[in-house]
Amino acid sequence: MSTAVAGYPAEWEESELLALIWAGPLFKELIYIANADAADLRDETGEFIPIHKLPRHVTAAIAGIKMDKDTGRITDIELWPAEKARGTLRRLKCFGAA
What we know:
Layout: H1 14-34, H2 56-59, E1 62-67, E2 74-79, H3 82-91
Antiparallel strand pairs: 1-2
Helix pairs in contact: 1-3
């Protein structure tokens, strides 16, 4: 039994819309990772920007953070592999990923 959802094309079923709503944030995260730039992690002096001051599109791409246990300063930040995110977007034929 199909259920039409008000405001959407009649051929879109409720289950399809729910899948789209669920997948939307995942696509957004993949796009952030695919477009991540390590330069966005550092300030003009080359120091790491505190994590709480980074914008969401940058923090979404962070896979790991290493810190000096004595000083608490960030010593390294690892990003998720952008090429893997681009490959996933290509396989899903999303957003013209190249």
